Amino acid sequence: MKAVSKNSDGKNYTAVEVGKMNELSQYTLVLSPEIQIPGKVFLGTLLGTTGGEISFQSFAPNSETGFLHTHKTHEELYFFISGKGEFQVDDKVFTISEGSVVRVAPEGRRSVRNNSNDSLVMICVQYKANAFSSDNITDGVILADKVNW
Fold first, then answer.
1. Cα–chain-centroid distance for residue 4?
2. Does some domain include residue 82?
3. CA 144, chain centre distance (Å)
4. pLDDT at 141 over 80
5. 60-81 pLDDT, tens digit each
6. Is the residue at 100 inside a domain?
7. Helix or strand or coil: residue 134?
8. 145 in a structural domain
9. Which listed residue, of 16, 22, 60, 110, carries a Cα 20 to 30 Å from 10's Cα?
10. How many distinct structural domains can be found in the chain?
11. What are phi and psi of 135, to 5 degrees?
12. What's the per-residue H, E or C state across 106-137?
């Protein structure tokens, strides 16, 4: 089983290396002996995130999540990087493909399936719902410091 490697870290950052997107199938997320999810890797703990979680996942051709799930407090954003398939929220099923982005509220009953003959690759960002306000776009501060490469 493949493992994420730490690329660099310092007081205010951590960088990790997941590898090529077409190698995600080498990861397996083990939730219990009975529940193992191939092609999925979580990065929050390795990165030391404090406000959200991120995962990468590759669905093999003609495979699916296999279950519906919700969250207690976390909203999720799904970014589809390659492939195509279907996404289900509550009882609504719709097509997703490279470039699709889906937001699901905590109580949304969700699942993903790859009903194609190619891999479906996604990134999922999960964060506490209702944590942002309308002034978040102005949270960034552009510094006058010179960039030194």
1. 15
2. yes
3. 33
4. yes
5. 999 988 889 999 999 999 999 9
6. yes
7. helix
8. no
9. 22
10. 1
11. -90, 5
12. CCCCEEEEECCCCCEEEEEEEEECCCCCHHHH
Compute the distance between CA of residue 49 and CA of residue 42 in angstroms, rounded to an integer.
Answer: 11
Measured between alpha carbons, how far is 75 from 98 in angstroms, rounded to an integer?
21
More confident residue, 33 or 125: 125
Tokens representing 68?
């519906």
Helix or strand run (H / E) with residue 37: strand 36-38
- Rounded CA separation 87/77 (Å): 12
The whole model's pTM is what?
Answer: 0.89
Q: What SS3 state is found at 125? A: strand
Give the single-character DSSP code of 130: T
- Residue with structure tokens 């995962």? 55
Alpha-carbon distance 52 to 56, whole Å?
14
Q: Which residue has the tokens 């309308």?
A: 134
Q: Is 70 helix (H, G, I), strand (E, B) or coil?
A: coil
The answer to whether the CB of 80 falls within 8 A of the CB of 120 is yes
Tell me, what CATH number does 92's domain have? 2.60.120.10
CA distance 45 to 59: 23
Can you give the pLDDT at residue 66? 83
Range of the domain at 40: 32-129
